[in-house]
Amino acid sequence: MNTNRRVFVSGLAAAVTLASTSIVRAQGKGLIAIITPSHDNPFFKAEAVGAEARAQELGYETIVLVHDDDPNKQSELFDTAIARGADAIVLDNAGADATVAVVKRALDAGIPSFLIDREIKESGIAISQIVSNNYQGAQLGAEEFVTIMGEEGNYVELLGREADTNAGIRSSGYHDIIDQYPDLVMVAQQSANWSQTEAFEKMESILQANPDIKGVICGNDTMAMGAWAALEAAGRNEVIVVGFDGSNDVRDSILAGGIKATVLQPAYRQAQIAVEQADQYIQTGSTGLQEKQLMDCVLINSDNAADLETFALSS
Amino acid sequence: MRPTLQISVFLLSSLVALGGCKIVKNADPAEAGQAEEAQTDQARMAALAREIWEPQVLPAVADLLAPLADVRAALAQDVDAAGAKYGYKPVGEASAWNFGVTGTGVIVETKMKSRAAKLQVDTVGDGKPDVTIQLGPIIRGTALRDAMSFLSFTDFRDQIEFAKLAGGLNAMAHENLMIPTEDPIGKTVSFAGIYTFKDVESRPEIVPTTLTFGAP
Questions:
Q1: Which residues form the signal peptide (chain A) (predicted)?
Q2: How far is A137 from chain B (nearest CA, A)?
């Protein structure tokens, strides 16, 4: 710890030296690198926007980068952040195992990392890991699903990308509730890798093999959108679809009577909290908090969908 | 955590050796380690929940217990002040307060045949239910885990492991309840347990650690 602190201080000194030679560091507080998956998924865009806005409010310069879920690209981006003398990295990572090494490399270079959304498999190398309480959220979604299904009928589960811990934890949260109802029967369970187009194709073929389905529970909202599009195309608007994330797309579908429910992850606020903890750490050398922190999720259905905007609920 | 588990595996195998009165090879620590790796998250966390239940969980619950009416009165004034005085919450901006409460009331509604059996109890005498008592075997939520100040998410591999620990603790609560075979509707019940606070309007969903049924 001591060694790290010293490295970190010397890293800070180097950053200060750099700062004195560059004019753009308006308030002189430093640079925060924000690295997420592709902004094609509005969830990750909301994270990047939330982090950037908060960092600028607090007087930091920012660079926003995307790794497209490619660990090699993520590694290059870390090199960029290190070379630019970033004072902190806010990261939604490209894999629970693959990310351990790059976070360590940044730490060795004196740059603390603050993780959001996805965990990594080790503690003690990131300063904070702030993740949605996916298990709690999945249980909320599953309870709603069970209620709308009337506790019976055949259903399908679309899973997320296997390498992502969140895919497993959501499925586990779903089944810990649904499996208690013996009249709910899962007739197909397939991964659509978080992807809308893949969910569309998978749903089409599942429908052909199992026309007698009553519901589809999905590991995220983009897959829910894909599944819903396939069901609609097949004239099966009565099928109950539930997602996870709380995207504006699914909100609009809920309000239009399509998808029935989703679970909001407070992505925007989560990214802001990571920046606040980075700021605290840069100023004082400690966040004063434990590394791993869970943020609870909120059920979204027709009762409150209208209050949802960009992964935040207005109260 | 791993050393403790290994020790318990070792003790268990020693006990088996003694009980059977025959010579059994002591478990090789390395082999025991491998056996532990092979266990599912659920089995490992169920074992941990059982191990900490009496020495750590029950005392921590006892430390939190306060009369439900007092906790409610404090919550109506100021949630965070009530939390600081009576409750516990894990680190994190959005985490909820967890309270340990005791109370007595009349059972006005029951759902006994469900896997998620529940009692609805009137503790204020207006004939309407104001708390839910979860009987299980399926007990919702993570209140028991999240009320334990000695359990930190940072010490666990990931959310999956941590979630299974919550399930293991809920299972221990269920296992230790004496649930009547006849529907207890209309009877009185005294309870102690933990719940996660949502808002002042929502009915507390208590995970009981003790329940005593009485005459109407």
A1: 1-26
A2: 10
For A254-288, give the DSSP string: HHTTSS-BEEE--HHHHHHHHHHHHHHHHHHS--S
- Let me know if residue A122 belongs to a domain: yes
Tell whether A252 and A139 lie within a shared domain: yes
Task: Looking at the structure, tell me whether residues A205 and A158 fall in a common domain.
Answer: yes
| Cβ contact A40:A138 at 8 Å | no
Whether A306 is covered by a domain: the verdict is: no
**Which residue in chain A is spatially nearest to B143 when comparing CA positions?**
A136
Note the ipTM here. 0.75
In whole angstroms, give the CA distance from residue A185 to residue A246: 26
Interchain pair A172, B160: CB under 8 A: yes
Give how many domains chain A has, as a whole number: 2
Is the pTM higher than 0.80? The answer reads no
CATH superfamily, region B41-213: Envelope glycoprotein gp160, DUF2291, alpha/beta domain (2.40.50.420)
Please state, as a whole number, how many other Cβ atoms lie within 10 Å of the Cβ of residue A27. Answer: 10
CB–CB contact A290 B154 (8 Å):
yes
Cβ partners under 8 Å of residue B138, min gap 6: A177, A180, B115, B116
| Bridge pairing between strands A292-295 and A240-242 | unpaired
Q: Which domain holds residue A179?
A: 134-264
CA distance A289 to A63: 26
Tell me, yes or no, whether A278 and A167 share the same domain: no
Nearest to B142 by CA among B118, B173, B119, B163: B163
Residue A92 and residue A64 in contact, taking contact as beta carbons nearer than 8 Å? no
